[in-house]
Amino acid sequence: MKIAxxxxxxxxxNLTRRLTKLGHEVSIANxxxxxxxAELAAETGAVPxxxxxxxxxxxxxxxxxxxxxxxxxxxxxxDHTAPNAIVIDTGNYxxxxxxxxxxxxxxxxxxxxxxxxxLKRPVFKAFNSISAANLLTRGLPAGSPGRLALPVxxxxxxxxxxxxxxxxxxxxxxxxxxxxxESWRQQPGTPSYREHDAQSLRQALSEASAERSAEFKx
Length: 218
Prior knowledge:
- By secondary structure, the chain is of the alpha/beta class.
- It has a single domain, classed as 3-Layer(aba) Sandwich (Rossmann fold), CATH 3.40.50.
- The chain is 31% helix and 14% strand.
- It has a 6-stranded parallel beta sheet, sandwiched between helices.
- Strand 2, helix 2 (38-44) and strand 3 form a beta-alpha-beta unit.
- The model has no long low-confidence stretch (mean pLDDT 97).
């Protein structure tokens, strides 16, 4: 699959490492330009591109940047993807720690629904509740003891099926967490926002409260 990764921090970098090893054709971009990605490209075989071009022809795009930087992405960044391309948002809103006050999210809009509005494309929320270290080292074959589970929220069943399969391919039990309006169930501060197996993750998602915890309010 042709995959574009926008953002090469901890999660983006380790997704690049994992996905290239699985044989996917990966292009990468960050805000500082392709010349800053030479080391990651040499390590993984991923192709560095300008952020305005990285998604051209991509069948799946992963946006993995700080929430506050989403509005800074160039207009039309997703205009030239493959038809019906899937977009994954890995982000989390950390108002006190990083992102500052975002009124719509503070008023109850799910974080990834806010991202979707800026990108003007449907998104799936995934990879937001796993550490970069676990993403790199904890993928295990299906049925292995200690296999971690990760939630996926989104509205399109066909696209979600692709995302769920990708998580399984990476070595995680993929759990359907409902539509994007339900994605608050996997936001920071909820019971699902820590390590789980599949059974405990489903329980955690069911126990989540829509009231944002104090630590994650501006």
